[in-house]
Amino acid sequence: MKVLTVTGYKPIEMSIFKPNDKKIVYIKEAIKKRLVSFIEEGLEWVLLSGQMGVELWTGEVILDLKEEYDIKIGIIPPFLNQESRWPEHYQATFEEMVLQADFHQPLYQDEYKGPFQFKARDRWLIEKSEACLVLLDEEYPGSTRFFLEEAKKFNEKKGYPIYTITPLDLEDTVQELQLNNPDYWNND
């Protein structure tokens, strides 16, 4: 696999309300772990729409991984100025990521017109990638359900692999990071 789409929850869907929430560290580490294994197997491109949450954090992870690996990032928002109504810190992160992206182009060269733009975005990202990685809990798919439904349809037709990062994967990452932290073992 050379091209992977990554998506997942928005921050509010994970009860994350601040940009320095500790949960983000664990989420980014779980994403990094999966991406590194894909990169070591030949992954060259990661596609994102750049939405708040998992996609922005993935972008940050990839920008860090670029120091060590030959990995490219493509950001394809559904429309122009997708970030215009986001909190300032997410806008700044998005703008920084766009500046460092290997490819950036909104799917529609216009502002938001309707939900059809999100559906077209999902379809485009799926058709342009060879697999996807989705952070979600299948019992509570939230906004990821639309992407997941489209990916499952494509999987039935073309055998499109759908990889996931689940709450259990996140718990494993938390435990692993805690156990590897020497301060964790101090009872002070």
From TrEMBL:
Pfam families: YpsA
Gene3D superfamilies hit by this protein: 3.40.50.450
Name of this chain's protein: DUF1273 domain-containing protein
